[in-house]
Amino acid sequence: MNYFIFSTRGDWDSTSLYNNGQEFLAGKLYIQLSTSRDLDGSPVRGGLSNGGAMTAYVLPQEDGANEFAIFPGKIDLDVPTHKVTVENTSPQFAIEFTRVWLDGEDVTEQVVDLEVNVDAINNNVSGFITIYKHHFLASDEVATYNLL
Fold first, then answer.
1. Is the pTM of this model over 0.70?
2. Pair 60, 121: CB distance under 8 Å
């Protein structure tokens, strides 16, 4: 099983990726997770308990290398303002076995979207996580946190 750790302080010199304790030289790290929406396409309460879809891979730096699946396994994303952990230990990569933590808090049933694209080949970096926050007496809210 894979255990990836991605760490950055916001620049290429401070960026690293390890898998099972060994440095993993990658040209790209890509994660896209989306949970189910209502008929209008709006986020709904429940996060991954409603189902969803995820793509997650790293592309090694070697010429002609194939994408390398992150899951089954776990990835920690240590970025300047947050820490996100995603874990799926299912050999079939079944979405219902996915767990997500934001800054140590389990947000599996609140996550709406997670996208991380660290593309060293094209010098492009982006990342965010969107969380559905249910409020008992007030209107629910959807909050997006920039990661990269």
1. yes
2. no
What is the rounded distance in angstroms from the CA atom of residue 1 to the CA atom of residue 114? 22
Domain assignments of the chain as residue spans, ordered by start: 2-146
**Euclidean distance between CA atoms 23 and 18, whole angstroms:** 4
Is residue 27 packed enough to be buried (19+ CB in 10 Å), middle (13-18) or exposed (0-12)?
middle
Beta bridge partners of 115: 32, 128
Q: How far apart are CA 143 and CA 80, in angstroms?
A: 18
* DSSP string for residues in 43-76: B-TTGGGG-EEEEEEEEESSTTPPPEE--SEEEE
| Separation of alpha carbons 7 and 46, rounded Å | 29
**What would the pLDDT profile of 27-49 be if each residue is shown by its tens digit?**
999 999 999 888 888 888 899 99
